[in-house]
Amino acid sequence: MNFIKIVIKYILRLISYRSVQKADRFFNILYTHWVKYSFASFGGNSYLERGLRLWNAKFISIGQRVFIRRMGNLSAWDEYMGQQFQPKIEIGDGCSIGEFFNMSCTNSIVLGQNVLIGRWVTLIDHAHGGNGEEELEIPPAERNLVSKGGIVIEDNVWIGDKVTICANVYIHRGAVIGANSVVTKDVAAHTVVAGCPARIIKTALK
Amino acid sequence: MNFIKIVIKYILRLISYRSVQKADRFFNILYTHWVKYSFASFGGNSYLERGLRLWNAKFISIGQRVFIRRMGNLSAWDEYMGQQFQPKIEIGDGCSIGEFFNMSCTNSIVLGQNVLIGRWVTLIDHAHGGNGEEELEIPPAERNLVSKGGIVIEDNVWIGDKVTICANVYIHRGAVIGANSVVTKDVAAHTVVAGCPARIIKTALK
Amino acid sequence: MNFIKIVIKYILRLISYRSVQKADRFFNILYTHWVKYSFASFGGNSYLERGLRLWNAKFISIGQRVFIRRMGNLSAWDEYMGQQFQPKIEIGDGCSIGEFFNMSCTNSIVLGQNVLIGRWVTLIDHAHGGNGEEELEIPPAERNLVSKGGIVIEDNVWIGDKVTICANVYIHRGAVIGANSVVTKDVAAHTVVAGCPARIIKTALK
Fold it and tell me: What domain count does chain C have?
């Protein structure tokens, strides 16, 4: 018994967690090569992790050196309950999107270059219906999808964990969005915002 | 080598990501049929995705056409560290619960019909102990579970991503809960609330 | 056909979801025994769930009876883009960390005993660069990692779901951090804080 235990111990030590994570990376590369032809465009050295929920990849463009982590949701809706849409998702070169994100589009979501996004981030450019009393008596999933406007995130923006970006928001270059923020309004360049709803915390020193 | 590459490419294109997601749906249906007999009741055309953490399904009733997405936690506690409870979770017809939710009950959580819930939503009707200084010196996991009251969510409520609903909260019909909100008080019908803690943003026009 | 249906039904009922979850626990124990030798130290009866993203376990110490749930990210960075760090993560006896957490360290993260942490909690002791205008023109992932200070969480602290703990924060014993909070400042002992940013809600009665 002791002998078997020692043998098992040594085998386990031989196969380190690092080598298994590398193997996992290999399967992610295979996954990327399989899925990439479905996209509108897919740049070189971009990399998707498995566990992605993908919907209508033909409306989604991925730049070069993009890194999209596991278990996200990437959906472009051209049709919902009889409504027709022309969605467009563009993810620029060098963007990195953290695990467990939720990006859902009926209008347009455009990310510039080198945007860094944390975990559990929501980017949705539409809502289930308006706020009239009659509409609020309809089951939310059966209300019309309404987009107040698309989302634009310019170059070098850094978005923290658990941020939610609402429709009709333009985030200018170099902005920083603090963790757990809800961004409902445009954010100026080189500005740090945080809170729920997000307010200006700091403006960059010139 | 080139020939093999081309063959692989064509096989990959043949098996699209959509067909694999459909296959995944098939396994989810199998999973649903396997688990459903454990529930107190389980309506027709309801559908659970895999990755669910389920505890004491015998205290949980699921209506018809309910859609519960992957990787959630659905727990009803009848016993915790020697304490006894009579939990009750009821999920009404047509409800849809997003991925990665956390629903934990020692008292009662009741969802009406057609409630739409986003991702990463927490519904917990109990807390680990009170706020007395002596109690706060006990390890939180060993404090008594205390419920200030159950959670009721009426028909047609729409709950955004990353919302937390606290104990003793009654959300009336047609309310909308903004993303990242923490709901600590009752919400009136046809009202939009948001923030941390949640405050009224809009009341429906009549 | 009916006969086959009945047979399948009975087989499904025989293998309950509980027994499968127990089997899953067994695989988690195997996983723990495989990974534990990579850590700086790993106490008895501690338990890791699979789906963990682990980086540089040699800088991480785990106490006894620690329970770390699935799908988290546990990273200690000794090197990033040419910068050198001496990270240190210490998790005390009896700590419990919920699913989907994100703990990332270049400086020091120290948890005392019996800390209870909810789901989707972020603990990061560093940031991507400062807030100077020139720096904000650099891609965030290429900015230098800066730590304003380590994170210390003392004994018996209870942290709710979706909390974010920022750098240079000291949370004293027996504190309670409400769900969805962003903790940017030190928290006194036996104090309840909540909000975004977190503010004092209650101080324990003596």
Answer: 1
What DSSP string describes B97-122?
A: E-TT-EEEESS-EEE-SS-EE-SS-E
Whose tokens are 């000291």? That residue is: C170
Q: Which residue has the tokens 């304490």?
A: B83
Among A17, A108, A129, CA closest to A61: A108
A38 vs B: CB within 8 A: yes
Comparing CA positions, the residue from A114, A138, A110 lying closest to residue A125 is A110
Is C131–A202 a contact, with Cβ atoms under 8 angstroms apart?
Answer: yes
Give the mutation candidate from A62, A131, A146, A166 for the B interface (greatest B CB count, under 10 A).
A131
B71 contact A CB<8A: yes
The contacts found for C79-83 with CB under 8 angstroms, 24 or more apart, are: C80/C106, C80/C145, C81/C142, C81/C144, C81/C145, C83/C144, C83/C145
* Identity of residue A63: G
Per-residue pLDDT tens for A9-32? Answer: 777 777 888 888 888 999 999 999
pLDDT of residue A1: 67
Residue C145 reports pLDDT greater than 80: yes
- What lies within 8 Å, CB to CB, of B4 at 6+ separation is none
User: Is the separation of the CB atoms in C96 and C117 below 8 Å?
Assistant: yes
Kindly report the CATH number assigned to the domain that includes residue A70: 2.160.10.10
The residues of C annotated with a catalytic role in the active site are: 128
Structural domain of C103:
2-203
Partner C contacted by A174 (CB < 8 A): yes
What does the alpha-carbon distance between residue C196 and residue A197 come to, in Å, rounded to a whole number? 9
Looking up tokens 């990974």, which residue turns up?
C35
pTM across the whole model:
0.94
In this structure, what DSSP letter does residue A201 have? E
Partnered with residue B42 across adjacent β-strands are B62
> How far is C-alpha B20 from the chain's CA centre?
26
Q: What is the DSSP letter of C72?
A: -
Q: Which residues of chain A have pLDDT under 70?
A: 1, 205-206
